[in-house]
Amino acid sequence: MTDALRYAGVTYSYPDAPSPALVEVDATIEHGAFALAIGPTGAGKSTLLRAANGLVPHFSGGAFAGHVVADGRDTREHAPRDLADVVAFVPQDAAASFVVDRVEDELAYGMENLGVDPRHMRRRVEEVLDLLDIAHLRDRSVRRISGGERQRVAIAAALAAGPRILVLDEPTSQLDPQGAEHVMAALQRLVHDHGITVLLAEHRLERVAGWVDVALGVDAGRVATGTPAEVIRTLAAGPPVARLGRLVGWEPVPLTVRDARARARAHGGAPGGDGDGHSRDSGDVLLAARGISARYGDTEVLHAVDLEIHQGEVLAVMGRNGAGKTTLLRVLAGVHDPARGAVATATGTPPRAGFDVALCPQEPERVLYGDTVEGEVRATLRARGATDAASPWLAALGIVPLASRHPRDVSAGQRLLVATAAVAATGAPVVLLDEPTRGLDPDTKDRLVRFLRAHAADGGAAVIATHDVELAAAAATRVVMLAGGEVIADGDPATVLGDSHVFAPQMTRVFGPGWLTPEQVAEAWA
Amino acid sequence: MNVAITPHAGPVTAPAADATRRTTWHPGAWILWSSFAGLCAFVTTDPVYLLLLWAVAWFVYTTHRVSEPTAASFRLFLIAGVVTLVLRTTLVVFGTIDLSSTAYAALEGLRLATILVVFGTFNAVTDPFGIVRLAPRRFHEPALAAALALSISPRMVSAVQRVREAQRLRGIRVAPLRSVPALAVPVLETGMEEALTLAESMDARGHGRGMRTRYRPQPWTAATILVVGSAATAFAMFLWASAAGWAELHPPTAPLGWPEAHPALLAAIALLAVPGFLRPGTASGHAERR
Fold first, then answer.
1. A359 touches chain B (CB under 8 A)
2. Shortest CB distance from B9 goes to which of A88, A321, A383?
């Protein structure tokens, strides 16, 4: 029997690229494997995934050497469409894959192309609607559903086509912890019960490391295959428990909370003290929202929200998909008018986007439209009449080497940093980040956290809307929890996150409330 | 403090949807309705009929528009219609200026503008790719090209909105008119990129393999047959009037005279408004079309 997916001597360069994106890749994924591609943003994971069904090089052009064989078919001889019955691909930007307007028709689109019997199609659509828990969306337009919902629809549409191999690029990036777990459980069921092969790329290893059985470590275009523990050990990446393992020298590094708990017991249990989390600053109020209610059409998305944002604060706004996080940020930035209530800056005026408040939207590419990374920042600076150089902003986010690159040609994580620089350069005291998710590898995350903390320490404030528990644990000085458009918790991270089953970070799960980051635990043990 | 979290991630915006009924009409009904309405406009320059056709197009659009980007694209067609009218009228200024030639040009312009507005309605009430799915296999590629072309205006509108918002978020204030060149490059770039991604996605999902089947084909319901039937009747009346001359379809411009409003043709235009009185599908479909 042939392997599900085989890369043999694959070296590939994008057109006009200075260096290859994939270098002599040899990797084999067996039928029925649940495989995970791990590696920093820009390492070549997306390219590796896109080569699985021939999108690379059939659509990307460039120089391709070697062979990729999917279920016995070489992508050299078979275009993506000829592999559509074998490989289904869910791209990073799920919305970009939608062809038809209505969710239910979108699910059927692939099957229609494959000539699946209409009766069978009807049944399969119902099955994937249930499997991904999206039956309530069937009549909606794909343009009018949330990011997390889109992601689930895209996965369902890929599955409906009945592929033997399913390739997913960051499939949980827009999902809340529960939604991500649901998707991972659904994928595992497909692997176990139906023998489907799954290959996915994901940065938030805490969500996926415990589910997969094979890992592909991708670093600067080179790929090494092994068990998840082996691969994670060789890369700087890893879920927080693995980082802790590395910090205190556990061998092999634990991958799940359960592993870590066993190791911690052997290590003598939780460190002394309570773990203090991050202290809460309460400087001057920079932005105050009073009694905010907001609606989209007939739906009330926020209800009577009071929120003050203080100088020196990094505030994490958390909550499940659809809780109203994005709307809250848009109201705070003055780009969505609340139905009731008002937002005021320190001087009592309504906030002006780009002046008092800088907002980086969920899709960072939305604010980028220039030719170069440096040009993006300079355009913002010029708009406020500043003659400063762009370089301090690039340096603050660690993207100086990208200065002359085209913003669309950098990796998803790098694009997020570029967009953050482009909006932060407005000089607005309050910086808002709406669900920074795609391409957020540990290194990018560190840069972002450092930037936000420095911005807050310089007398500003930062707000991140996120359902990424570990990001909140690492960055926030305060956490606000939204549910159904209302604030249901507001306090320091140790209390708010420690009190939650769903939103508890891994360190809290291992050591109890108060412990948020592996660095904090390692320090207490030292 | 107690953080209440329920395990199910239910979106707050989801309307309770009817699980069994489809909520849109057969796209063929819209193709035929708009063709007949456009042809009615084509055979006349009478401003009474033409302006009534504008009203009909608006009425049908408000009842049936699909979602926001297409709604914005209807406005675009409306603006294009007005611009056409103004341009066609003012072009006369470069020739001999007299009342009758200006009036003649204005009426010609109005006719063209009306066709544009009817097309705008068609664009706003249909999903272009729904039409691709409908096309017989042999016409698949031309239908795809047509769908891509049809989806350009809503795409452009959303691209403009996006770039505008990006400028706002970055504190870049550009006067509406001066922003046109600044917008053009990013909007075109975004549009190209989207088209490319779409082509990629369609290919990866097996488009063009040549053995298509159809999922839940939309039936020709009584309502859609009524719509097409009344639109066909309307056009037949105009055609008959044009051929037999029992009503004047082109008001005299030299010398200038009052336009006619024949009751039979007013009734014909009323027939074109039939879709505005019929709502497709169930109430659940409408929760979304707010």
1. yes
2. A321
A311 and A417 fall within a common domain: yes
Residue type, A436: P
- Amino acid of residue B166: A
What pTM did the predictor assign?
0.83
Residue with tokens 């005026």: A349
Q: Could you report the average pLDDT of every consecutive run of 10 residues in chain A (526 residues)?
A: 89 92 96 94 93 94 96 95 95 85 91 93 95 91 84 94 95 90 92 94 90 94 92 81 90 89 86 58 86 88 94 93 91 94 94 93 85 92 88 93 89 92 94 88 90 94 93 94 94 89 91 90 87
Interchain contact, B127 vs A161, CB within 8 Å: no
What is the interface pTM, i.e. ipTM, of the complex?
Answer: 0.84
Asked whether residue A230 falls in the same domain as residue A243, the answer is no
DSSP A69-110: EETTEETTTS-GGGGTTTEEEE-SSGGGG--SSBHHHHHHHH
Asked if residue A326 and residue A226 are part of one domain, the reply reads: no
Radius of gyration of chain A from Cα atoms? 23
- Alpha carbon separation from A52 to A64, A89, A287, B161 (Å, rounded): 13, 9, 48, 35
**Is the same domain home to A48 and A92?**
yes
Cα of A87 vs its chain's centroid, Å? 23
Note down the domain range covering A258.
239-277+507-526
Q: Where are the domains of chain B?
A: 24-134+244-284, 151-206
Q: Which of A106, A156, A89 is nearest to A129 (CA)?
A: A156
The verdict on B177 touching A (C-beta cutoff 8 Å) is: no
Specify the DSSP element, H or E, that contains B68: helix B68-90
